[in-house]
Amino acid sequence: MKCRICGAKAVIYLRQHNLALCEEHFISRFEREVQKTIKKFRMFDRDDVVAVGISGGKDSTTVALVLHKLGYKVRGIFIDLGIPGYSAFSRNKVQNFAQKFGIPLEIYNLKEREGESLPEIASRRKDRICSMCGTIKRYILNKWALEIGADALATGHNLDDETATLLSNTLRWDVGYLAKQHPVLLPTHPKFVKKVKPLAFMTEREIAVYAILNGVDFVNRSCPFSKGAKSLRYKHLLNEIEVQSPGTKLRFYREFLEFQSKYLKPVESEPQLKECKVCGMPTTIDVCSFCRIFRRGV
Amino acid sequence: MKCRICGAKAVIYLRQHNLALCEEHFISRFEREVQKTIKKFRMFDRDDVVAVGISGGKDSTTVALVLHKLGYKVRGIFIDLGIPGYSAFSRNKVQNFAQKFGIPLEIYNLKEREGESLPEIASRRKDRICSMCGTIKRYILNKWALEIGADALATGHNLDDETATLLSNTLRWDVGYLAKQHPVLLPTHPKFVKKVKPLAFMTEREIAVYAILNGVDFVNRSCPFSKGAKSLRYKHLLNEIEVQSPGTKLRFYREFLEFQSKYLKPVESEPQLKECKVCGMPTTIDVCSFCRIFRRGV
Fold first, then answer.
1. What is the separation of C-alpha A293 from the centre of its chain, rounded to a whole number of angstroms?
2. Cα→Cα distances A123→A116, A118, A129, A178, Å
3. Of A187, A223, B134, B160, which residue is most buried, by most CB within 10 angstroms?
4. Each residue of A8-45: b (16+ CB within 10 Å) or e?
5. Conformational region of residue B52, where left means phi above 0, alpha means psi within -120 to 50, and beta covers everything else
6. From chain B, which residues contact A within 8 Å (Cβ)?
7. Residues of A with CB under 8 A from a CB of B
8. In angstroms, rounded to a whole number, what is the distance separating the alpha carbons of residues B161 and B234?
């Protein structure tokens, strides 16, 4: 197969666009598409500081790298959760990645900063570990982004993530979630940083190829705690449909955003936010979930 | 497994309801559920005449039978499309079925009434045969229901059909279709008969079991023309989800109807209907699709 633009040897064939591209033209197309998403959804500007939580996987390294290559002011953070056989391995890759590409990186060690690692917390609590881990990471990322004065917090959510979530929300017709799912989540409190998903229209496959072509040595093992997640099933199902009808995922997400803007007004009755009695961060309860997890003020 | 109601040997386990039932209690539950659907959506009353197109498959025989057993005035019609190795075989089964249960039945022979069988029409036209067949059957059913003064035209659409259609419409976020998909389609013209789907909340499996337990000898082969239909893929995918999360299909459809009633007002800009110059039936064009298929007035 040959690149449709220059005729050189193609490295990828994008079935949904019936488009074969060489390395150079795939990379430039990828960056152009991400740039278009940033502009279209007014995610951030040239002068803005963009915070990125870098776990070391293909998505978070790619979002950091592509924003860096596009000339944005990227600041990275790696949250070391202390998961044996996973966190140290990932930290090492992220440090190498940041150094290689010249992306400023901070390491946040949960055990050192909060007194306990994730497995230690999990061992004394009944909550599902993945949901707790989500709470912890969201809290730390937001607070850190706020502290460094970031204008936006970018995540690596890709088209496969977004459509799997969308399918899940749609199967339940959960209006609350459907009204909110968007490439941009505007802050509902001065202590929340705007959240953006610059890779929302790029597939996992495009992202992995982009990372590989750019020489990113990303973490390819999944977290030992994340077995049999429901979202994986929906991804698998959407991939089955995609094979038969290329472009389904992209259309599903794009048309949804159109539909949402016309029919689903943002829910007005947002829960009232107050500030956590312990840490002062926004919460709907007296003591926020993060402080509760670490047994503070309860 | 034992019947949850009487402790007798169960004939079916309904995973989505965590409910095992014996023959008697499965049948009575099935009929009660269909009755609930008829009432909830105000499909028709005791005095109404309900027309049913009976193809001979499990769905159309079951809808005719359950309505008959519930005491409604059912009138059946079999449309003989003249498909070799299929139509005559099906007609025979439908005639036996109608006789066995005492359901009034008419036979409509396409070749005799309109001059050509479906394969004859298909051989001289480029259109997809399934879409043509749909046009022909919808036209004949509606016209016949109108002629016999039926108050409603019931079809055998089941939960698997409805959710497959819903998934297809949702993947495209096709608001026109989403706003219309409903167990009841009210007539938009005096020459249209109200269309109703009394089995919309029953799964294919429940319907097949109901038919078998009632001694219905239904047609179990599919039409030779209906290979690889897209709806089969969506059914298959939904079944995969259903296996993992029993009740998904029912919730998907039920919650959708709730969602629809709140967020999707029926499209006001319905195409203007006029009467076909040839046959006088409602159409958006000068000569209706049915007349065009049979080369009348064009």
1. 23
2. 11, 9, 9, 34
3. B160
4. eebbbebebeebbbbbebbbebbbebbbebbeebebbe
5. beta
6. 170-173, 175, 233, 237, 240-241, 244-245, 248, 251-252, 255-256, 258-259, 262-264
7. 170-173, 175, 230, 233, 237, 240-241, 244, 248, 251-252, 255-256, 258-259, 262-264
8. 9
Q: Who's near A260: CB < 8 A, 6+ residues apart?
A: A178, A179, A181, A182
Q: Which CATH code fits A30-221+229-267? A: 3.40.50.620
Question: Shortest CB distance from A259 goes to which of B175, B237, B245?
Answer: B175
* DSSP at A2: B
Cα–Cα distance between A10 and B157 in angstroms, integer? 47
* CATH class of the domain whose range is B27-267: alpha beta
Domain boundaries, chain A: 30-221+229-267, 268-298
Nearest residue to B31 (alpha-carbon basis) of B10, B76, B73, B62: B62
Alpha-carbon span B265 to A263, nearest angstrom: 10
What ranges in B102-187 are assigned the alpha helix state H? Answer: 110-114, 118-124, 129-147, 159-171, 175-180
Cβ–Cβ of B173/A264 closer than 8 Å?
Answer: no
Per DSSP bridges, beta strands B195-196 and B152-154 are: parallel
Mean pLDDT of B265-284: 85
The sign of the CA dihedral B202, B214, B38, B51 is positive
Contact list, B241 vs chain A (CB under 8 Å)? 171, 233, 237
Summarised one tens digit per residue, pLDDT across range B69-91 is 999 999 999 999 999 999 999 99
Higher per-residue pLDDT: A68 or A131: A68
The whole-model pTM stands at 0.91
